[in-house]
TrEMBL record:
Protein name: Phosphogluconate dehydratase
Gene it is expressed from: edd
Domain Dihydroxy-acid/6-phosphogluconate dehydratase C-terminal: 407-600
Record organism: Devosia enhydra
Entries under HAMAP family matching the protein: Edd
UniProt function note: Catalyzes the dehydration of 6-phospho-D-gluconate to 2-dehydro-3-deoxy-6-phospho-D-gluconate.
One cellular component term from this protein's GO annotations in UniProt: cytosol
Taxonomy, superkingdom: Bacteria
Keywords recorded for this protein, A-Z: 4Fe-4S, Carbohydrate metabolism, Gluconate utilization, Iron, Iron-sulfur, Lyase, Metal-binding
InterPro entries found in the cross-reference section: 6-phosphgluc_deHydtase (IPR004786), Dihydro-acid_dehy_C (IPR042096), DiOHA_6PGluconate_deHydtase_CS (IPR020558), ILV_EDD_C (IPR056740), ILV_EDD_N (IPR000581), IlvD/EDD_N (IPR037237)
SUPFAM superfamilies cross-referenced by the UniProt entry: IlvD/EDD N-terminal domain-like, LeuD/IlvD-like
NCBIfam families in the record: edd
Length: 603
């Protein structure tokens, strides 16, 4: 299967741009492979420490040089619904490994924090940085040199990107990502959103709001809206790092366990001790990264991946840009309507045909590279399937010919829009990204006076004081990665939506984040350069007219440039936001972090 010209052009320029760094990366993982089965390099004392707590049978296997040993890197905790199901995975993986004549050990755990819990709280300032902490924790977990392959147990926002960055630093090791799945559908997302807005308007109380939230987030599993967590799962499958059809199977089901068992067997089959050696560093190449970006656009995925994909690609020696993403967005049709881009959730998406249908349609349309390596083998066409449990046997059947819910998952020939919902904005204010898949066409162009805030709390106070009673472009600055860690600002969504519902033209402009949960209000986010670094956003004053055109991809302040830059840039004492809730430990991260367009990475 050949891909369309626009897809190939982006792929080629990524390969050309990355030739030197990718070549160096591949040389490094080849050298690591040449060292052989890694625990064979350990001294007797080293090895004895490494298997001291194992059973006698596992010790006997580990004492030899040829029996594969799987490292399990887990994000398990039992506070967060998405990660709680991982409690039982290590025992299941070890059992399957032993049945296969191999061994498995929990190599280490990585932190898993939740933007939903920390939303609007001081802990949110650690959220983005947790990705790079997770990458480092993954490296520490694998540093004992005991493993022939790894299984990565992760789901949510920063966890999967962090795990993949860490995994790619051990790119000579095969790796399989093992999902846990979304919780069953609870309260409809549009009803939850309605109650949130009523609460912001003071029309319902906290008890009613809490009841609605609890009915939405009600059991083990990932949140069901299409934010960063579920975008992660889509990415891992379309990149060939999951088993086919495994992303959106609910936790605690026989099919979920069967897929985890098979993931274990598959990881064992990929090690250098056999004949099918497939290191993760070979799977994640420029074609896989382009496939990931295509999937993100086709599904209206999370804006956080405008940073995470850049950072993940860099870990494999690949350089991608926002321009690459924007060009692909123009070429790829929007095929999914999942909340906040519609009323359905990921369970509906999966029931409609899910990833198998999506991948087959995109392949047939020429939007994906089929000739890629995957953990399953056979190229990406092997992922155009559904996973089923038939008479207790894991079976893969062809994806349905038609979507069962065409208002949720469309065919490539009749998409919801001819292009993706993610765009780059440029202009005299710098660069930013905007997600428009949930924004109605009539709201995509706005020219209005600015109202400037230096915190989301200040904006909330102005809203409650009824100060925002006309057309406005709300500017929330000093929220960037170098300022306070680039927290999620999704808490602002209900307030801005209320203003829009009152008939005002409203938009948000910020150097902070809004994530995949951003909704119907246009939001120019990830502004770079950020205010702390003296970017143009620092020069905006109340009343400056700003023009944001999401269709044309432009964002400009309509002030004479000589006058605008003659101003002194705004400053802010951020010290209070650098202490408390552990934030003081991240001063080095704030000082080292790169800009959003470069992945907001400390590496």
């Amino acid at each position: 299967m050949s891909v369309r010209k626009a897809i190939q052009e982006v792929t080629d320029r990524i390969a050309q741009r990355s030739a030197t760094t990718r070549g160096a990366y591949l040389d490094r993982i080849a050298a690591a492979r040449d060292e052989g089965v890694h625990r064979a390099q350990l001294s007797c004392g080293n090895l004895a420490h490494g298997f001291a707590a194992c059973s006698p049978a596992d010790k006997a296997r580990l004492a030899g040089a040829r029996t594969p040993n799987l490292g399990i890197v887990t994000s398990y905790n039992d506070m967060l619904s998405a990660h709680q199901p991982y409690e039982t995975y290590p025992a299941l993986i070890k059992q399957v490994a032993r049945e296969s004549g191999a061994t498995a050990q929990v190599a280490g755990g990585v932190p898993a924090m939740c933007d939903g819990v920390t939303q609007g709280q001081p802990g949110m300032d650690l959220s983005l940085f947790s990705r790079d902490v997770i990458a480092m924790a993954t490296a520490i977990s694998l540093s004992h040199n005991m493993f022939d392959a790894a299984l990565y147990l992760g789901i949510c926002d920063k966890i999967v990107p962090g795990l993949l960055i860490g995994a790619l630093t051990f790119g000579h090791l095969p790796g399989v990502f093992v999902p846990a799945g979304p919780m069953p559908t609870g309260m409809p997302n549009d009803e939850k959103s309605r109650i949130r807005q009523l609460y912001m308007e003071g029309k319902v109380g906290r008890a009613e709001l809490l009841e609605a939230e609890a009915r939405s987030y009600h059991s083990a599993g990932t949140c069901t809206f299409y934010g960063t967590a579920n975008s992660n799962q889509m990415l891992m499958e379309i990149m060939g790092l999951h088993l086919p059809g495994s992303s959106f199977i609910n936790p605690g089901t026989p099919l979920r366990d069967a897929l985890t068992r098979e993931a274990t067997r598959r990881a064992l089959s990929l090690t250098a001790t056999g004949n099918n050696y497939t290191p993760i560093g070979h799977i994640v190449d420029e074609k896989a990264i382009v496939n990931a970006m295509v999937g993100l656009h086709a599904t209206g995925g999370s804006t956080n991946h405008t940073m995470h994909l850049v950072a993940m690609a860099a870990a494999a020696g690949l350089a991608i840009t926002w321009q690459d993403m924007s060009d692909l967005s123009e070429a790829v049709p929007l095929m999914a309507r999942v909340y906040p881009n519609g009323v359905a959730d990921v369970n509906h998406f999966h029931a409609a045909g899910g990833m198998g249908f999506l991948i087959r349609e995109l392949l047939e349309g020429g939007y994906l590279h089929e000739d890629v390596k995957t953990v399953w083998g056979g190229g990406l066409s092997a992922y155009a399937v559904e996973a089923k449990l038939i008479e207790d046997a894991l079976t893969f059947i062809p994806a349905p010919a038609e979507s069962a819910l065409p208002k949720v998952l469309a065919s490539v020939k009749a998409p919801f829009a001819p292009n993706g919902g993610l765009r780059m904005l440029t202009g005299n204010l710098g660069k930013s990204v905007i997600k428009v898949s949930a924004v109605k066409t009539e709201h995509r162009l706005i020219e209005a006076p600015a109202r400037v805030f230096h915190s989301q709390d200040a904006l909330q106070a102005a809203f409650k004081a009824n100060e925002l009673n006309g057309d406005v472009i709300v500017v929330v600055r000093f929220q960037g990665p170098g300022a306070i860690g680039m927290p999620e600002l999704h808490k602002l969504t209900p307030s801005l939506a209320v203003l829009q519902d009152r008939g005002f033209k409203v938009a948000l402009l910020t150097d902070g984040r809004m994530s995949g949960a951003s909704g119907k209000v246009p939001a120019a986010i990830h502004m770079t350069p950020e205010a702390k670094n003296g970017g143009p956003i620092a020069y905006i004053r109340d009343g400056d007219v700003i023009r944001l055109d999401a269709e044309a991809g432009t964002m400009d302040v309509l002030v004479d440039p000589a006058e605008f830059f003659a101003r002194a840039p705004a400053t802010e004492d951020l010290t209070p936001q650098h202490f408390g809730m552990g934030r003081e430990l991240f001063a080095t991260f704030r000082n080292l972090v790169g800009p959003a367009e470069a992945g907001a990475s400390v590496f």
